[in-house]
Amino acid sequence: MADTFRVALTRDFRSDDGTIGWGDIGMAQLEAEPGIEWEFLPVDETPLSPGALAGFDGVMVLGNAVSAESLVGADRLKVVARFGVGYDTIDLDACTAAGVPVTITPDGVRGPMALAAVTLLLSVAHNVRQKDRIVRERRDWSERYRYNGLGLPGKTLGIIGFGNIGREVQRLLAPIGMEVVAYDPYLDPAVAGQAGARLVGIEELMAESDAVVVTAALTPETHHIVNAERLALMKEHAIIVNVARGPLIDQNALAEALLKGRIGGAGLDVLEEEPARDDDPILDADTVLLSPHATGWTDLLAYGNGSGCVRSLLEVARGTRPSHVVVNPAAFDHERWTGVPDAPKTVS
Ligand SMILES: NC(=O)c1ccc[n+]([C@@H]2O[C@H](COP(=O)([O-])OP(=O)(O)OC[C@H]3O[C@@H](n4cnc5c(N)ncnc54)[C@H](O)[C@@H]3O)[C@@H](O)[C@H]2O)c1
Questions:
Q1: I need a labelling partner for 27 at 20 to 30 A (CA). Which of 68, 82, 104, 249 fits?
Q2: DSSP-assigned beta bridge partners for residue 265
Q3: How far is the CA of 162 from the centre of ligand 1 (A)?
């Protein structure tokens, strides 16, 4: 009889009542497969400590980091399935050296995260936060005249990082009729053109846009890609939204620009330091709408990300390579993958 394929879920998936905190993440498909068992890791820790993954064939990872040390003793580990698309918390080089492919779930995040960006964009443009406060705090409704919003139709939208989420933001906003400019040095201009966006330089984007949406990957090159100098190029009424990673924006510079009224507003799903420090100046800005890295979290995101992870785990458990989407294909150069076939196009 074949060995059981053992799957770990990082402990941060577990809610206080012992169930998966995200609701239905598509585990039924994994549970229906003979010969697979899964369990939560015993400790919520980041990074996972040496030995934490020993005895497991696959791991589904939420927020806990996987470092080189985390792989100590993980001799059976054949796949790290990341619930989401950001893999800055996974030591890719260490996984590659160990022959462990890391998979991500772009299909799960694309729609929900693009809608999250649109939600923040429209809420900030229409000053929803300030208008809610007028009613809730029983203020004089004449105050509403101070909060006329920014109508987006006919205006220019700038998207920094025109990938999976960025292009979906553009597609969702197409019906309202904005001109779209994008900055993404790694994108084929033909792809941008097909999507209906004009590729421009970052300075041009900051200066031309009425609304800027940040959906770039966080890399050493994109750290503080929106800095004080580039914020200074923005129009006075312009707004900026970040749903990617906090360090893409120099947050102190943004707080200063907002507090001094030099730009119109901001919507931030992500912060440079999470959770926010009590004395973080961004918390004092009235024109910023904030979220604890969760604007995009919906039932659809949970199911989409979970199903993507389950698909990877099933493919490996069935004796094939994971197909969807491996961010370190060099892991397959490891001898353990010699002769292992690709997964069929679809897994039922
Ligand atoms: N807030 C959340 O809950 C949440 C959820 C999912 C994803 N994210 C973040 O969103 C990011 C984007 O996700 P995605 O699925 O669109 O990824 P993606 O890889 O498809 O897109 C990222 C884009 O950034 C571009 N890029 C790389 N370097 C750049 C540079 N120097 N300047 C401009 N663009 C550059 C890439 O070419 C790519 O097109 C992820 O990296 C992740 O960190 C956040």
A1: 68
A2: 239
A3: 8
**Coil vs helix vs strand at 59:** strand
Q: Is the Cβ–Cβ distance between 270 and 246 less than 8 Å?
A: yes
Residue 133 falls in the annotated catalytic set: no
The answer to whether 204 is a known catalytic residue is no
Residue 159's H or E segment, with its range, is: strand 156-160
Residue recorded with tokens 């209906």: 196
pLDDT tens digits for 62-100?
999 999 999 999 999 999 999 999 998 999 999 999 999
Which residue, judged by its Cα, is nearest atom 39 of ligand 1? 163
Where in the chain do CATH 3.40.50.720 domains reside?
5-104+298-337, 109-286
Q: Which CATH class is domain 5-104+298-337?
A: alpha beta
Q: Which of 293, 318, 324, 334 is catalytic?
A: 293
How many angstroms does the Cα of residue 326 sit away from the middle of ligand 1? 16
CATH 3.40.50.300 fits 109-286, yes or no: no
Q: What is the pLDDT of residues 296-348, one digit of tens each?
A: 999 999 999 999 999 999 999 999 999 889 999 999 999 999 999 999 876 44
Give catalytic status of residue 274 as yes or no. yes
Annotated catalytic residue within 110, 230, 245, 311: 245
Q: Tell me the pLDDT band of 2, cut-offs 50, 70 and 90.
A: low
